[in-house]
Design goal:
There is one protein chain. The protein contains seven helices and 22 strands. The chain has about 400 residues and is of the alpha/beta class. It has a domain of about 160 residues: Ribonuclease Inhibitor (Leucine-rich repeat, LRR (right-handed beta-alpha superhelix)). The strands form three sheets. The chain has a twelve-stranded mixed beta sheet with strand order 2-3-5-7-9-11-13-14-16-18-20-22. Strands 1-4-6-8-10-12 form a six-stranded mixed beta sheet. It has a four-stranded parallel beta sheet with strand order 15-17-19-21. The structure holds 2-acetamido-2-deoxy-beta-D-glucopyranose (NAG) (8 copies).
Length: about 400
């Protein structure tokens, strides 16, 4: 799950990596330049540096002091003013002044380091890339990070950060790639997150609890992963506004209720739609049959019912269609033989009379008696009927997957 959209990410990151690889040789250029400036200064070490690198030196030394475990010795060579030689620290030329070296990248991925992020991190004002994936950093992100106006890519995934959503990130004007998954952030998702010009948003495996903000559709991201949070609420119809950019939407196990809005089918660029392990009710919106690029559709482990429409089974790019653990009672046309279309599928534990591994008649009858009218349950609009509540009470079967 965590590595799921990797192929996409590599594409996304290529421009950044190209930027760094082109500049990585600048390290050697730096040494030459430094020697050149040597006679201007008395202090040997300072001569090799510049004000920006000195600020970085202060920041990195402060950071090193609050790193309490470093099993792979990433920071053991973090000594002296030559910060560009530190493990995990990447320098490049300042874009507007090619004679000045600056710290543009910090990559401590998989360091297994424990500690926290000091306020002095705000001195790394030239940072474009901050990768701290798979460490044991804890606490909160310092507010001084608002100084990181060049920060383009932030990956603090798989750490132990806590507290509310790190609002400081919303103030970063250059941020495009936001990955805070696998931490312990909690509370509401700020609507401002979706007003930012981000390309990728990974929030999965935290403790966020609010409903999905209704301005979700104002985002410009191509990948949004909310999975494994307790968001609750339903998917707002305003998601339709997301159509021009969204390619992957992963809402796995986010406590989502209600019907899937017809507007999901307006997301014409969508390749991956995974809403599995929720409490979604009602029928499949026929509009999904319009998603010409859809490759993976996972509706599994919900409480959906009705017909599996043929329009979905004939989608040209579809290669994996999971709708197991629902209450579907009929497959239309070729949907009964997805093997013949070369589509990987899972239709177990539904109410499909002709198929093996289905639910009991008793379970199916209980749902059939309480049909859900999705026109009455439009997300964000209160229905005056009581039926809006009844679907929470359908008992979920206790059987586990074989
Ligand atoms: C890190 O350094 C310590 C002390 O110098 C050494 O004992 C240990 O083996 C080193 N660890 C790694 C992973 O290199
Ligand atoms: C930086 O590292 C390189 C190679 O590891 C070394 O040749 C160079 O002297 C170092 N520079 C400084 C200033 O320590
Ligand atoms: C470089 O200069 C341009 C134009 O003045 C400015 O917009 C940009 O932020 C500068 N870049 C950096 C890294 O300071
Ligand atoms: C922000 O960066 C500037 C240098 O550009 C520095 O002087 C200032 O101290 C930094 N602020 C914080 C809070 O780190
Ligand atoms: C769903 O997420 C919760 C945490 O929000 C987690 O405890 C649970 O194991 C997850 N369930 C599945 C099926 O992944
Ligand atoms: C199909 O999708 C399901 C659910 O997303 C996944 O568990 C399964 O591994 C996929 N199968 C193949 C062959 O890609
Ligand atoms: C599904 O289609 C294939 C070939 O298209 C056929 O061989 C097979 O018998 C069909 N299965 C069923 C259950 O109709
Ligand atoms: C409540 O819903 C019914 C239809 O289900 C409608 O006829 C009625 O006017 C609604 N009442 C209000 C106050 O909206």
């Amino acid at each position: 799950m965590a590595s799921y959209p990797l192929s996409h990410l590599i594409l996304l990151l290529l421009p950044v990596f190209a930027f760094y690889f082109n500049h990585i040789t600048a390290k050697h250029a730096h040494t030459t330049t430094s020697i050149h400036h040597h006679h201007h200064k008395n202090n040997h070490l300072k001569a090799k540096s510049n004000n920006r690198l000195e600020q970085a030196y202060i920041a990195l030394q402060a950071w090193k002091r609050v790193i309490y475990s470093d099993p792979f010795n990433f920071t053991s060579n973090w000594n002296g003013l030559s910060v560009c030689n530190y493990t995990g620290i990447y320098c490049t030329q300042h874009p507007n002044d090619t004679t000045t070296q600056v710290v543009a990248g910090v990559d401590l991925n998989h360091g297994d380091m424990a500690g926290f992020l000091p306020n002095e991190l705000g001195l790394l004002t030239d940072l474009a890339l901050l990768h701290l994936n798979s460490n044991r950093f804890c606490g909160i992100l310092p507010k001084t990070m608002s100084n990181l106006t060049q920060l383009f890519e932030l990956d603090i995934s798989n750490n132990r950060f806590v507290g509310p959503f790190p609002y400081v990130l919303l103030s970063l004007p250059s941020l495009k790639y936001l990955d805070i998954r696998f931490n312990e952030f909690e509370g509401i998702l700020p609507p401002q997150l979706f007003n930012k010009n981000l390309d990728a948003i990974f929030l999965n495996n935290n403790r966020f609890t609010s409903v999905i903000p209704s301005n979700l559709g104002t985002s410009t991201a191509s990948v949004v992963v909310f999975a494994n949070n307790r968001l609750g609420g339903c998917l707002p119809p305003s998601i339709a506004k997301f159509a021009n950019t969204l390619e992957e939407l992963l809402l796995i196990n986010t406590s989502i209720t209600g019907c899937l809005p017809t507007e999901v089918g307006f997301l014409y660029k969508l390749k991956v739609l995974d809403v599995s392990f929720n409490q979604i009710v009602g029928s499949i919106p026929y509009s999904i049959a319009g998603l010409a690029h859809l490759e993976l559709l996972n509706l599994g482990h919900n409480m959906m019912s009705g017909i599996v429409p043929e329009g979905i089974c004939v989608l040209p790019s579809l290669n994996n269609f999971t709708f197991s653990y629902n209450f579907f009672c009929e497959e239309e046309g070729i949907c009964t033989n997805l093997t013949s279309k070369g589509i990987v599928f899972d239709d177990r534990r539904n109410c499909l009379p002709e198929k093996p591994f289905q639910r009991s008649k008793r379970e199916c009858d209980a749902v059939e008696k309480q049909p859900v009218d999705c026109f009455e349950h439009i997300c964000g609009i209160k229905s005056n009927t009581t039926s809006a509540v009844t679907f929470h009470h359908i008992p979920l079967p206790s059987t586990s997957p074989p």
